[in-house]
Amino acid sequence: MLAKLRRRLLMAGRVLITGDSEHQVLREVPSITPEEVAEARAIFPLDKFFILGHARSGTTLLARLVRLHPEVHCNYQAHFFTRPPLLQSLVASKEVEAWLARRSNRWNHGRDLSPLVLRAVADFILEREARPLGVRIVGDKSPNSLLGGEAVRLMHKVYPEARLVYIVRDGRDTAISHRFQAFIDAAQHLTNEDLRIRREFYADPGPFLRGERSLFTPQGARLAAESWTRNVCETERAAKELYGDRFRTLRYEDLLSNPWESLSQLWQFLGAGPGEPSLKEAVLAEAQRNPDSDWQQEKAGELVGQLPKGQPGLWRQLFTPFDCKVFREIAGPTLLAWKYEANLDW
């Protein structure tokens, strides 16, 4: 039932994005078989990994750091499995299924070629950039805020042998960061009430910066807490079930406080080795950079100039008592599980 609901949501998203109401029934594409994985790897041999995370959780920073290793490359946001129309849309129509599974097609060996087509497309995109670099391991980072655990299921159908990394950030800081990103980059999608808050913050930020006025509408605060909680819980549950020991989690806060140790462990998980000690200086320097903050400062310094970007615990300064209440009620157990709090007395 959940998978069917997800497919309907994806179909609706495709229609909204493309305006294409034809061929909108997304079929369930079969999973790739172990034999087909072996065939694909014979042609595209690089080991693959994927970085997921809720929006504004440090996926970009992690991608920049992980590719400092000479055997690893990672680039950003192919959204193969995380945002409509998705990789599977290439073979989603019944007409394409009929073509790729046609009994008279002697190339398909009597089986629907769809999973191999999807694998070949993604492999080519990943390896065309990685191979000239001489690396052995290549990955993509794409936030999975929209699909949560469904993104893991779709990934596993095409890359069951890949490695999956999920980075988690305190949902309260994530909500703050995402809110300011929306103020700066997506004002056209804000409601009238959101735009009013944006204008009032710009005119007099003091009450907002002291936690006396909320940056969120009441409904917006609830949606932020629900979205983060659902994504974290669904992703971890699906990843543990499908990927087992090929799944690794990492807290954004631990990455900031111990970048070298975090990266050394992650590189070993990916099969690249811990990295030469000479890499440590590069890792520490890159961890201090914040290109996103620099870009936001240049674009909208009047909105974000007084905010310490990327620092853990900013929510303590900006959350109102109501914001705290909403997050305690909705996200409290998840914050406890990830050791962001020892109790709910905050």
Descriptive report:
With 346 residues, the protein is of the alpha/beta class. It has a single domain, classed as Rossmann fold (3-Layer(aba) Sandwich). The chain contains 16 helices and five strands. It has a five-stranded parallel β-sheet, with helices on both faces. The chain starts with a helix and ends in a 9-residue tail after the last helix. About 3% of the residues have low confidence.
Summarize the structure.
The chain contains 16 helices and five strands. By secondary structure, the protein is an alpha/beta fold.
Q: What is the number of E strands?
A: 5
* Name given to the CATH homologous superfamily: P-loop containing nucleotide triphosphate hydrolases
Strand % is 5-15%
CATH architecture: 3-Layer(aba) Sandwich
Primary descriptors:
5-stranded parallel β-sheet; 346 residues; alpha/beta; Rossmann fold
Strand and helix layout:
Elements: H1 2-18, H2 34-43, E1 47-53, H3 59-66, E2 72-76, H4 94-100, H5 114-130, E3 137-141, H6 149-158, E4 163-168, H7 171-185, H8 192-203, H9 206-209, H10 218-243, E5 247-251, H11 252-257, H12 259-270, H13 279-288, H14 291-304, H15 315-318, H16 321-337
Parallel strand pairs: 1-3, 1-4, 2-3, 4-5
Helix pairs in contact: 6-10, 7-10, 7-14, 10-16
